[in-house]
Amino acid sequence: MRKIYALLATAILLLPTACVQGRSVKMTKDVLMDKIKGGWVGQTVGCTYGGPTEFKYTGRMIPDSVAIEWPEHRIKWYFDNAPGLYDDVYMDLTFVEVFDKKGLDAPIEDFANAFAYAGYQLWHANLQARANILAGIMPPESGHWKNNPHADDIDFQIEADYAGIMAPGMPNAASYYCDGIGHMMNYGDGWYGGVYVAALYALAFVNDDVDFIVNEALKVLPEKSRYHRCIADVIKWHKENPTDWKYAWQKAQDNYTDETDCPSEPGGTFRIDAVINGAYIVIGLLYGEGDFERTIDISTRCGQDSDCNPASAAGVLGTMLGYSNIPEKWMPNVREVEDLPFAYTDISLNKASELSFKQALQVIEKNGGKVGKKYVKIKVQEPQAVRYEQSFEGVSLKKIVTVDKHAVNNDVEFTFNGSGIVLSGRLRNRQDGDYKAITDITLDGKPFATVEVGENAYTSQDHIFHAYDLEDGEHSVTVHVRNPRKDKQLWVGRALVYKK
């Protein structure tokens, strides 16, 4: 059944619960807290379940013959041995903590600095945003595609849960709290991924039908955006074949895996863009039909970023069900860690729930609702589309040029024909030390930029330079290292060449 009777089940335990009155929903504070905690726990469970498969299946489904286990102490093991798995959770918590300390109207600079100077490692759009912020390029410019070649990647999509959890029943408020933070690291479809996921969470507080939520949340996105088109297609494919999720997966594979803008692995099967991974979230939700385990398993078996996608799907479903209605199979592992802080923070699952509850009460009041002693009355919002924006507008990938050279004599020289370039490269023998290769970029015989290519993976961008506004034609590039070290040679890998 696609209809989930979570509110009915919760009502038996926590009478009275939600009562829809026109455009308002009244629920007990206990139910609100139960749903908030269900969201955080669902996200953590989904992330953990898919953790062993992350990016091991790119461009292919995880076969049914591959067992995905849920042994005792699974979450605790990751907490103790591989806490970086929970980057989508502790990234969320960075923003939750700033809201707690600085209030709902905290300036974006507070979020940017908390994010940029945090002790955790980052990747893709987040890493480039950190490098930008540390270099003085602040939001929203830090996430704009002309400053961040990863602008359409999944980063904000996996860390926008906070916005939906703090805005129960209020998808437009969730979009508001996505705007400044989401543009720290993403733009266009990369931003839309977070806006959509936040809307799913917000609507899950006041609706118990997965199909309805998936469709209703889509209203927050402009119809002409690629992200909107993809999710609309997934919904259509589900209607065409509502029993076989692999049908929708193959359709998505055939129609939405042609993006090659991410400089990390251009031209391969690796896809970290928000659009295709967002499709996998929705495939899990629709074909999971409200079943917690089936939802997680399907989103995981879609492959690619197969810990983050089930985390998002399970977080949304956990919000709908509430903590008290998550099946017992998952709970012993949860109870073992729910008072333990996530890495790089002092916030646990229980504390995260408390902070989000406090923020949700403020957002409810700020948006016309009421907070009483035992109840809240939420003024439910009709989803409205955010503004339209598109990354890489006016340019398209022309070809991928393999350079594959070391700066043996301090220099690397090559030519390309196009109107833009993203040049990937890194230091050999990088060991997260303090050395930075001071690198001068000369373009067509003229100084173009000076960049620092560091060996510290926590702060250094993962490409050498990018430019999108060149005159279309033949260009020459010289990469010169001012302060070379024989044990830390600069390697120049590939060039993504663009045309107008």
Task: Please provide a written account of the structure.
The chain has 500 residues and is an alpha+beta fold. The protein folds into two domains: 6-379, Orthogonal Bundle (ADP-ribosylglycohydrolase fold); 396-499, Galactose-binding domain-like (Jelly Rolls, Sandwich), CATH 2.60.120.260. Helices cover 42% and strands 17% of the residues. It has a four-stranded antiparallel beta sheet with strand order 1-2-4-3. Strand 8 (436-443) and strand 9 (446-454) form a beta hairpin. Helix 14 (274-288) packs across helix 16. The protein is globular.
Give me the secondary-structure topology.
Layout: H1 6-13, E1 19-21, E2 24-28, H2 29-50, H3 74-81, H4 87-102, H5 108-116, H6 124-134, H7 155-158, H8 161-165, H9 171-185, H10 189-204, H11 210-217, H12 226-240, H13 245-255, H14 274-288, H15 292-301, H16 308-321, H17 331-335, H18 349-366, E3 370-371, E4 375-379, E5 396-406, E6 411-418, E7 420-427, E8 436-443, E9 446-454, E10 463-467, E11 473-481, E12 490-499
Antiparallel strand pairs: 1-2, 2-4, 3-4, 5-12, 6-11, 7-10, 7-12, 8-9, 8-11
Helix pairs in contact: 2-16, 2-18, 4-5, 4-18, 5-6, 9-10, 10-11, 10-16, 12-13, 12-14, 13-14, 14-15, 14-16, 15-16
